[in-house]
Amino acid sequence: MSNLTKRKFIKVSGSVIGGIAAGTTVTAAARTDRFIVSTKGKADLSDLTVVHEMPGINYAVVQGDESDVKRSVKSYEADVRIELDSPGVNKETPTLDASD
Predict the structure, then answer these.
(1) Other C-beta atoms within 10 Å of 37: how many?
(2) 58 torsion bin: left (phi>0), alpha (psi -120 to 50), beta (else)
């Protein structure tokens, strides 16, 4: 299974499970300013802003133009922004008072 396939599987399953568990609306969108890059081999991140480094698995999250990313690394994927909407509150739910 390639890294891209793993990433897509984790992204989709995490969004679905999170949405079901919390009763919220989940929105996932690829970003155009942040990328997850492989730092194996000859990765030169000097033209990019490193947001997070993950040295144990040879990946980093960088910020910059996609053209700079293409020149700097061999393997990359757009980072994903996930937004959760607050769950709706059922205002018709009965409440209990002391006499009940």
Answers:
(1) 23
(2) left
| Tokens representing residue 40 in the block | 């194996």
CB atoms within 10 A of CB 91: 5
Task: Give the pTM.
Answer: 0.53
Contact 76, 69 (CB under 8 A): yes
Find out whether 72 and 45 touch, Cβ atoms under 8 Å.
Answer: yes
In this structure, what token pair is assigned to residue 20?
């079901």
Q: pLDDT digit of tens for each residue in the chain (100 aa)?
A: 345 566 666 666 665 565 555 555 656 666 778 888 888 877 788 888 999 888 888 888 999 888 888 888 888 888 887 777 766 666 676 666 766 5
State the amino acid at position 81 in one-letter form. Answer: R
Rg (CA), the chain: 20
| Kind of pairing between the strands at 49-54 and 76-84 | unpaired
Residue with tokens 């970003």: 31
